[in-house]
Design goal:
The chain has 229 residues and is α/β, with parallel strands linked by helices. Helix content is 26%, strand content 33%. An 8-stranded mixed sheet has the order 7-6-5-8-9-11-10-12. The protein has a 4-stranded antiparallel sheet with strand order 1-2-3-4, covered by helices on one side.
Length: 229
C-alpha cells in the first residue's frame, strides 16, 4: 500500500505534507521526508538520552520541533512526572496534525508537565528562558531543512545563543542524519565539548543516525560515543 496524502500546509518558506500508510504517519517538508512512524528508533533514543543526561531530579527541558511526537513521548516516558518539557513547534499545522491524527497512538494522555508552544525555536531561545537540556529536533542535522532561517542555529551566533539558554551544567542535544566534522569543530571553538552517539542501522550503515551532545564538560556516552578530543 503506498503512502496516502492526508493534509498539506504552508508556513513561512516550508511546504509540509502529512501522509499515512497502514495507520502510521509520515511528514514531508518541501517534498523530502522529514520523519515517519515506521522508523523512529533514533528519535526514541534521542528522548531517552535526554532523560539519562538530566543534570538534576526535575530538569527543565526544551524540545525544538514536535514532528510526530516520538522524541517527546520517549523523553516523557523516561522522565515520568519529573521536571517540565516545553515543545517549540513553528508550524500550527504540525501541532494540529499531532493532536488530531498522531497523538492517540504516540502519546495518548497529554502529561501535565508538557507544554506545546507554537513558536519558532530561535525566537523562543531569545526569549530569555533557560533550560537544563535543549533538544534540537527540527532539521535532519546541523543544516537548515525545514526553514532556511534555521541556518542561524548551527553557526557561531546560534551556538552562542544556545549556550546562553542553558542552565549551569546543561546540555544541547542535536539529532542528525549525518556526521558533520565542520559542526563539531565549530561547537568546540564556541566553548562546547562534543560527544556523539551513533544509533546504528545494522543492515544499512549509511543510514546510521547520530546524536550530538554539546556541553561545557566532557561527557561519556559509553562505547558508541565519540569523546571530545
Amino acid at each position: 500500500m503506498p503512502w496516502q496524502l492526508v493534509e498539506s500546509a504552508r508556513h513561512a518558506d516550508t511546504h509540509l505534507e502529512l501522509y499515512v500508510k497502514d495507520g502510521t504517519y509520515m511528514i514531508r517538508a518541501n517534498g523530502l521526508e522529514l520523519m515517519n512512524g515506521f522508523a523512529h528508533d533514533s528519535e526514541t533514543a534521542f528522548g531517552q538520552l535526554a532523560a539519562e543526561l538530566a543534570p538534576n531530579a526535575a530538569p527543565n527541558i526544551l524540545i525544538a520541533g514536535l514532528g510526530l511526537g516520538y522524541t517527546l513521548a520517549a523523553a516523557r516516558e523516561a522522565l515520568g512526572a519529573r521536571g517540565t518539557i516545553t515543545v517549540a513547534e513553528f508550524s500550527p499545522a504540525v501541532i494540529d496534525w499531532f493532536e488530531r491524527h498522531v497523538r492517540a497512538s504516540v502519546l495518548p494522555v497529554m502529561p501535565k508537565n508538557v507544554v506545546i508552544r507554537e513558536t519558532d525555536a530561535i525566537a523562543h531561545l531569545k526569549s530569555g528562558a533557560r533550560y537544563d537540556l535543549i533538544l534540537l529536533d527540527i532539521d535532519n542535522g546541523p543544516e537548515p531543512f525545514t526553514l532556511s532561517s534555521n541556518a542561524t542555529l548551527y553557526d557561531r551566533a546560534g551556538l552562542e545563543l544556545l549556550r546562553t539558554a542553558l542552565n549551569e551544567d546543561g546540555s544541547v542535544l542535536l539529532w542528525s542524519g549525518f556526521q558533520s566534522d565542520a559542526f563539531e569543530a565549530l561547537a568546540r571553538e564556541t566553548g562546547f565539548s562534543v560527544a556523539r552517539r551513533i544509533v546504528a542501522n545494522a543492515p544499512r550503515p549509511e543510514l546510521d543516525h547520530h546524536i550530538y551532545v554539546l556541553n561545557a564538560r566532557l561527557l561519556d556516552l559509553g562505547g558508541a560515543a565519540l569523546r571530545d578530543r
